[in-house]
Amino acid sequence: MRSFTLPLILAASLGLTTPVAAQSDFEDLLGGLAQGLIQQELDRNAYIAAQEANTASAYRGYLAKFPKGKYRTNAEQALARLGVPVEGSTAAAAQAEARLGITYSQRIAVQRRLTRLGYNTYGADGTWGRNTRNAIATWQRDEGETATGYLTGAQLRALVGGVVVTPPDDETPPGNLSAAQVEASLGLTRTQRTNIQRQLTKIGYDAGVADGLWGSRTRAAISAWQRANRQSQTGYVTAAQVKLIGTQAGSVTPAPDDGNSAALEESLLGLSTNEKADLQRRLTRLGYNPLRTDGYFGPGTRRAIGEWQGDEGEPVTGYLTADQVRMIRVETGG
User: Fold this and answer.
1) Binning pLDDT at 50, 70 and 90, where does residue 4 land?
2) Which of 44, 107, 176, 223 has its CB surrounded by the most CB atoms within 10 Å?
């Protein structure tokens, strides 16, 4: 009898009553809801099974069964990490772009060209971060292309062709590294960053609040200091510049710590259990599964953090800095 179907059981459990004339439609509605919940549970279980197997065939099987499943992006990213990205996925687009061997000069040319076209990359330093990727994706969409944020060979030629540009600095960074990458390689801790901000302010270059978070104000202070000291104006520091700033301020900034400095820096953030659980959930939404969201940063979370850091071009430590916590929050909607 229809009165004993799952939809009616659900209706009874919710304490709902409907007119006799509308009962059939109501049952159909609840039946649809119940079917949706069942489908979601099947989707979730299938992805968990693929994740436990952690093989290319398992993830492909999940995608074949649930091509529009809730965990499709997770599965595609997992396949990319296994070296077999799904054709048409963002990971596949990223690998295809990497094979182009885009030079430092070409990267600057692309950023300049996009900005002139109205797609602001917020700088032309040869480093393609979130702003550049967003600009590329918006340009691709407006051109009727798939908006991946990664260029194809044809798109690269359309933007810059065979143009070779002069880097913005007097010299190309060592090893074709951008100024931002050179600074990142220093591995400055938050304490050191805070100290440098204080030193800059002390010698007359207002870096704003000395909190270790280097935003536009600190970058402007670094750039002004570089100009005054006849250095290339990049807004990013080199090891020699860190020492010179320290000397001018009357004290030399200690060299970056090694060993467990990353773990120590994260511990200084004082993240609560709730904050850690929130970060685990956000990492999951970004496609980096920490395996648990209980506020405890175990091996699964450390691995997820490391994978996210690698994809963001950050030093891969498995431990978060204040800047990275903010980046994760921004990437997941604040």
Assistant:
1) very low
2) 107
Cα–Cα distances (Å) from 178 to 189, 214, 216, 225, 303, in that order, read 20, 17, 18, 19, 27
Do residues 127 and 181 lie in contact, with contact meaning Cβ atoms separated by under 8 Å? yes
Tokens of 64: 């074949």
In angstroms, the CA 70 to CA 79 distance is 16
Domains of the chain, start order = 2-86 (no CATH), 97-160 (no CATH), 176-249 (1.10.101), 261-331 (1.10.101)
Question: With b meaning 16 or more CB within 10 Å and e meaning fewer, what string describes 3-26?
Answer: eeeebbebbeeeeeeeeeeeeeeb
Distance CA 157, CA 106 (A): 10
Calpha distance 200→156 (Å, rounded): 40
Q: Residue 73 corresponds to which tokens in the numbers above?
A: 């992006």
| Distance in angstroms between the alpha carbons of the first and the last residue of the chain | 50
pLDDT in tens, 84-118: 666 667 777 877 787 777 877 788 888 888 988 88
**Cβ atoms within 10 Å, residue 204:** 11
